[in-house]
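Do me a favour: review this protein, sequence plus structure tokens, and tell me how the chain folds. Record follows.
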Amino acid sequence: MSLFSKAVLGWFDEHGRHDLPWQHDKTPYRVWVSEIMLQQTQVVTVIPYYQRFMASFPNVQALARATSDEVLHHWTGLGYYARARNLHKCAQTIVNDYGGEFPRDAELLEGLSGIGRSTAGAIASISMGMDSAILDGNVKRVLSRFHAIEGWPGNKKISDAMWIVAEGYTPKKRTGDYTQAMMDLGATLCTRSKPQCEICPLMPQCEAYELGTVKTFPNSKPKKVKPVKSTRMLIIEHQGEVLLRQQPSSGLWGGLWIFPQQDIQDEALQHPMLDNCKVSQVQAGEPFRHTFSHYHLDIHPLRITLKDKVEQVGEAQILWYNLKQPASVGLAAPVKKLLDAL
């Protein structure tokens, strides 16, 4: 075991987190769900979602049996909904193709929906005791600072080099503890904006610390100006219910329920969903911005009260969402925000 690994494990034994929900009963299923939820999401945010998810879907068979709406409902507010769709698809694959058992092979795990190389390594090491390395955002930050590795980690050349370093440090023994220790170290000490270098076990050999350039690592992705798009969301309501439509399973907000949308240049009351409807009131809401990874979306809400309720609109999958007794369906984040304000 390297001095690096010994230092990390020594710190973890004394100062690491050992009571997170997914650190108890470390089955492949429980570790997998936690790893997917923790992608680009902080621990404090994930904990209540994880606990509710486990209460409803305690094993991979329960998740595989669930409907898409049930899964997306439990993910509402967590963001990056492709994770939930892949999680559901992966559960069905494990049940149908692997007899409900996760394959004890990192490469096979990596071939499943939504499981990349690092997630496969985490599942294999933490729940199966295999000596598989990981390279998530926290580990990239620790390693890039420790070795002052120049370049954006999202670049394949830089990523490949970092994988070699990560695999070199991963010990054959206590691999699961080491995996959690590295994630912990990056999440609690070697943080993005306020690293606590003085109490870090790696500080004496950290090249970025020696150079006084800790905060410059890892190097940022070359910035691009995000384009801005606009949409009008029609909050069509009738006697305590609002009209939602379900998005196709693929694409933006795939499988989620949203308000009908239209171009802000279009005449609002000429939307197909309002054909043959009698409108009693129209009120414009305050516009707000929702940001995706690749662009900003400026949303202009328009509240439309109907005199009569429409039951079917062409081929669209619609739902009259009761505000007092809300259905258990997946909602896009801006839709949930608007519903909460009604």
Observations:
- The mean pLDDT is 94.
- The chain has 13 helices and eight strands.
- Residues 228-341 form a domain with the Nucleoside Triphosphate Pyrophosphohydrolase fold (CATH 3.90.79.10).
